[in-house]
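Q: Give me a protein?
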Amino acid sequence: MASLHENEISRIIINKLYEIHSQLGPGLFETVYETILHYELKAEGLKVEKQKTIPVEWKGIKMDQGFRADLIVEDKVIIEIKSIESLADVHKKQLLTYLKLTGIKLGLLVNFNESLIKNGIVRIVNNL
């Protein structure tokens, strides 16, 4: 797929989030939503990496056990998927840290456990 801007990628992702949530609703495990979203975004022709380990550098040493990103789309958007009662500030801070560590500018924090998916999508930016 031609090089897309973060906002264009985000629009595709959000459309898929609405589609998945309208069909399945809230209450399933995060891994179910993650697997289906991964499938749907790949079907759109996007490059999607699932459960990618991102190392952290500490004092010049690369630590391989940094964190795992749920989904990274086109090396430009990190998607962190939750299926919980409600999002907490720590989830937003966590995603912002992921963005800073990778240099990626846009993250979407998604809580599928909302009756309306629009209430479960939080856009986090890192110098975008």
Notes: The chain has one domain: 6-125. The mean pLDDT is 94. The CA atoms of residues 66 and 108 lie 19 Å apart.
